[in-house]
Design a protein that fits this description.
The protein has 319 residues and is of the alpha/beta class. Helices cover 46% and strands 20% of the residues. Strand 6 (134-137), helix 6 (143-154) and strand 7 (167-170) form a beta-alpha-beta unit. The N and C termini lie far apart (47 Å).
Length: 319
């Protein structure tokens, strides 16, 4: 009887261990600016996941690629992902839209890596030359879309969602190069590696570079913080460790990012593009509320984030 009890307890323990298996669903973009997410996805693909090794044997990680931030935020709202790497503008928009109840910024990820690219033939030399032109951004309301609209407004242009003095055209990153080459776009405001690809593959020229702008942050859905706060914190710490490792081992990090982008794009990502993009980026797990306040001001100036609320809960790690 004693042995039966021990065996029963053992089986109960096994069942409990199996029941506690957790899958974390994490979003990211196949961009160099989302290097931590790309590395995480690639190491999972290679069966030696950076995050899995630090989250424990009962945690699996599934990676979900997105083209731009608003789509990733919708996935958070829908409960189809738990965390995501995303630009700050979509994170802010989601925070305000949910009255601060659904989104938390856990850490910074990258700064820089975004730029306004124009044709290399010299047709656009000064801000006034953008009048009547078509400028592409990755998606309506994403970080580069807001930056483009705010900058154009500061140059004195009238900018609306569908027209104005300069037409801002939300265009998926993979489509931008072909349209730019065909002359159907006069400029593109985007992020790496697309900036470098426009330079190297489409004879583009950098007109304006955002060297210190917040490009990528790590956010979590509040639901995860309520149900598994310790897991969210482990993921944040693993992210911070990875960010530090990237600074110490840039060559290895770049190669992992290149492999990850190649896998996502189903074709070889040239090393020159990743190397060029890397020079424009600074990877950091730090975040600054001051930078976010400036982003709010820019977004409100162009018609976004009209229902802004205080940002104090955005940076809290509590539900």
């Amino acid at each position: 009887m004693k042995y039966l009890s021990i065996a029963f307890a053992f089986l109960l323990g096994l069942a409990s261990a199996r029941a506690e298996k957790i899958t974390l669903r994490v979003g990211y973009f196949p961009n160099v600016t989302h290097a931590q997410g790309v590395i995480g996805s690639q190491t999972t693909r290679e069966k030696h996941g950076w995050f899995e090794q630090r989250l424990g044997p009962n945690v699996a990680v599934q990676w979900y690629p997105f083209n731009a931030g608003p789509s990733a935020m919708e996935a958070i709202f829908a409960g189809s992902i738990d965390l995501t790497y995303v630009g700050p503008s979509p994170a802010l928009n989601a925070y305000f839209r949910s009255q601060g109840d659904e989104i938390r910024v856990l850490a910074g990820a990258a700064e820089g890596g975004a730029a306004l690219v124009v044709p290399g033939d010299g047709r656009i030399k000064q801000p006034a030359d953008f009048k009547g032109r078509r400028i592409a951004t990755p998606q309506l309301g994403n970080t580069q879309d807001v930056a483009a609209r705010a900058w154009l407004k500061k140059q004195g242009f009238r900018i609306t969602l569908t027209g104005g003095d300069v037409l801002v055209v939300p265009t998926a990153n993979p489509d931008q190069i072909g349209l730019f080459q065909q002359g159907k776009l006069d400029a593109v405001w985007t992020v790496e590696p697309w900036v470098s690809r426009l330079e190297l593959e489409a004879a583009g020229k950098i007109f304006l570079e955002q060297t210190d702008a917040v490009t990528t942050v790590l956010v979590a859905g509040v639901k995860l913080l309520k149900t598994h706060p310790e897991l969210a914190e482990k993921f944040r710490l693993a992210h911070a460790e990875l960010t530090a490792w990237m600074g110490i081992h840039p060559d290895e990090a770049r190669e992992l990012v290149r492999a990850g982008l190649s896998a996502e794009m189903k074709r070889e990502m040239p090393a020159a593009i990743v190397t060029g993009a890397w020079r424009r980026l600074r990877f950091t797990d730090q975040i600054s509320p001051v930078q976010f306040a400036a982003l709010v001001a820019d977004a409100r100036s162009v018609g976004f984030l009209r229902d802004a609320i205080p940002l104090d809960r955005l940076f809290s790690r509590k539900p």
